[in-house]
Design brief:
The chain is α+β, with helices and mostly antiparallel strands and 135 residues long. Helices cover 24% and strands 39% of the residues. The strands form two sheets. Strands 1-2-3-4-7 form a five-stranded antiparallel beta sheet. Strands 5-6-9-8 form a four-stranded mixed beta sheet, with no helix packed on it. Strand 8 and strand 9 form a beta hairpin.
Length: 135
């Protein structure tokens, strides 16, 4: 390989490593921009699952959002979006009424005045699958 090819390969490799380091640094810096604040937790009848209603806040440039996640009873709410439901508004004003019909069915009575962004109709796999109904 001649000198020019070796030099070009070195420059490309260096630029690639720098780009990966830059993207990784940005991801590290901005990972904590959002936070979840629990509004209410509703435990399933057999206490193996729970539905957590929470506010997700991603800073001053975003509005309030109300979100719901189904988790195992021992699992902590992670710093992620809701896994079954999300809508606009603060939970104090727009949280839906949530109740467990049975261990494998959750009922969500949402408010007509809020904009819904996501509403899943089921959660889980073959085992521990939960049906979600909306009113």
């Amino acid at each position: 390989m001649n000198k020019w090819k070796k030099a070009a390969l070195g420059v490309v490799a260096t630029l690639g490593i720098c780009a990966i380091a830059f993207v990784g640094g940005l991801m590290y810096l901005f990972q904590g921009m959002c936070g979840n604040y629990i509004h209410k937790t509703i435990t399933s009848p057999e206490a193996t699952l729970k539905a957590v209603i929470f506010q997700r806040d991603c800073g001053a440039t975003t509005g309030f959002s109300t979100q719901i996640s189904i988790l195992s009873a021992t699992e902590k709410l992670s710093n992620d979006s809701g896994n079954i439901f999300s809508s606009d508004g603060h939970p104090d004003d727009s949280a839906p009424e949530v109740s467990w019909v049975s261990e494998d069915e959750l009922s969500i009575n949402k408010r007509d005045t809020v904009q819904v962004y996501n509403q899943e109709t089921s959660w889980g796999w073959v085992w521990n699958k939960v049906k979600i109904s909306y009113k």
